[in-house]
Write a structure and sequence with these properties.
about 5% strand, hpI Integrase, Chain A, 3 domains, two-stranded antiparallel sheet, three-stranded antiparallel beta sheet, elongated, 5 strands, mainly alpha
Length: about 325
Amino acid sequence: MTIHPKLYLRRKRAIDALHAYETLRKHRLNVALSDIATDYVRVHKANQQLLSCSLKRCCKVFCNSIPKSQVRNWGTYRSLARRILETLPPDLPLKSLTEADCVKVLEPSKHPGTYNSRLRRMKALLNWAVRQKYISQNPIATLVLKPRPYCEPCFFHAEDVERIFSVVDACPYEHDKPIGMFLALGFYAGLRTSEILRARWEDINCEEEFIRIPKPKGITNGGKPRIVELEPRAIRLLRKFVAMSNSDKSSLVVPSVWKISQWKKTHLEPLGLSWGNDTYHNVMRHTYATMHVAAFRAPATTALNLGHGESLRILEKHYRGLVGRAEGKRYWGEED
């Protein structure tokens, strides 16, 4: 049916356009029938473009659509997009994507935690595509998360920590001494590795016996700063390493991540003490939590220092009862 010399609509769309025109005229709205037909053609073309969207274009548009308030998610979703495009043909039409294709992307993730994390992100991407009308339904909507078996946190015993600090004291080079501050902040203040790498000398207040962490957890985390109250053993160690440092107060405590990694490989791996892989990433923090709750029997204080807020759930689930009180006292230098 021809409504305008340059516009052609199928019968159903033409009838819809006529009904819309009639409704608008009844409400005394002055509009041309050709304008309504133009809108129908424009919407029809847009829908065709969406339906022919490729996998590569969908991933690109989705990553660009992440708001600035969620900038911390850019890296994770870009990593997922990269994995998708490496596993599947980039020019694959999104409407042809099947559950089997998605399973191919998720198959290399052997660890349940990694698999579940990627599955959640992939579901979020495809749910977004459904809302944008790129596809009619999410092909992996029925996939379920893998059960994650419980695994005790990795930590060092008191004698191992003593061996590590004896290696630091025996280090012949003066420029290796900042390593001691890195270890003290992890083992005796419970800071995460990422928090130590962002810590500055001005954040450490040995006189008032606390450490202020301006950006806890992730780099872009919007949470309020955390205060860690220091025990006497921690204060003694920190004062010792602060006295050795001539750095400016506003400078970073740990100037080089590579230097720390090399120091661990050179001095600790020969002793069988290493946490270079993902499993031992925050082993110092786990050691702090285990020994603090065992020695002082004040779970609320331990949880507060760790940044768990008022919840004791994580502490009860992972750290409490792993070692006896005697070993905890030895760790903090408070043997009976």
